[in-house]
Specification:
Immunoglobulin-like; Cytochrome Bc1 Complex, Chain D, domain 2; five-stranded mixed beta sheet; Helix Hairpins; alpha+beta
Length: 303
């Protein structure tokens, strides 16, 4: 009945079916009883109300039956959840980084990928971390979701059981472009994955500077085509004259290497007029001088 894309689909779907079935049964049953009581005990049929003080059998039934049903629902929920926290020792480890507003995936060789690429039928453990605010990594087709909390380690794992492409979403509101925080889980055969890992992972067809901007989620807030998003566009940025707010005072600057470096290290020091402060994190420990040179060389191409 259900597509078992991962090892957790059946357990989660079974829990859903049981809980939903019980809920629908009682919704229909209670509604039917209410309608019956409205008709059977209407004022026309019972002009003089009858006071029923006690019914031991009924009281025992409405205590015992719900208790049993709650235990049944708990069992299915626990049986589905417990395996999600028990990671196999041979699981492949990938670090999943969340930041406003993009996911990035770091593999054991230190290379990054915008999408999560994994081999078929191989246990995969995602070590979750956030660079800024609270996120939640959600793979609907796999029925798994875990919060990604800044400053706190968390994890999730799964076994992909079907080749294909699956959506990765953020299920925790994390700011203005939360709904754009999308990625893909790509499941390859083992041979195709090995080839990708050996020959394509870490090899980008993008300009090195653009690859760095993507890796640090910069283009989630700054476009390269002139359109306005959360921050100023990168198009035509290099050596552009800007009006910025510094400690509440307007001043005119020219975008050069020093300004870009300061903007990355102290993003709220100089805010371009018309844009909101407080949205960008510091990259002081993330972007090296070598990375900065690559980024600047790319910005120079965006005439």
């Amino acid at each position: 009945m259900f597509s078992e894309a991962s090892n957790f689909v059946k357990g989660v779907d079974d829990s859903l079916v049981v809980i939903l079935g019980i809920s629908i049964f009682f919704l229909v049953g209670i509604t039917a009883v209410m309608i019956y009581f409205v008709i059977r005990y209407s004022r026309k049929r019972n002009p003089i109300a009858t006071n029923i003080e006690h019914n031991s059998k009924l009281e025992i039934l409405w205590t015992v039956i719900p208790t049993i049903l709650v235990v049944v629902m708990f069992y299915y929920g626990w049986a589905g959840f417990t395996p999600m926290r028990n990671v196999p020792k041979d699981a492949m480890v990938v670090k999943a980084h969340g930041q406003m507003w993009a996911w990035s995936f770091e593999y054991e060789n230190g290379s990054y990928s915008e999408n999560l690429i994994v081999p078929l039928n191989k246990p995969v453990k995602l070590e979750l971390s956030s660079k800024d605010v609270l996120h939640s990594l959600y793979i609907p087709a796999y029925r798994i979701k875990e919060d990604v909390v800044p400053g706190k380690a968390n994890y999730m794992w799964f076994i992909p059981q079907k080749e294909g492409s699956y959506d990765i979403l953020c299920a925790e509101y994390c700011g203005e472009r939360h709904s754009y925080m999308l990625s893909k889980l790509e499941v390859y055969s083992q041979d195709k994955y090995d080839d990708w890992y050996a020959n394509e992972l870490g090899v980008s067809r993008d300009h090195p500077g653009l690859a760095l901007l993507k890796q640090n989620a910069c283009i989630s807030c700054h476009s390269t085509d002139g359109s306005a998003i959360i921050g100023p566009t990168f198009k035509g940025l290099w050596e552009r004259t800007e009006i910025v707010m510094t400690d509440g005072v307007e001043r005119e600057i020219t975008v050069d290497r020093d300004y870009i470096r300061k903007s990355l290290n102290e993003p709220n020091a100089d805010i371009t007029k018309g844009f909101n402060p407080g949205l960008m994190i510091s990259y002081a420990t993330t972007v090296s001088d070598e990375d900065m040179d690559q980024i600047i060389e790319y910005l120079k191409t965006l005439k």
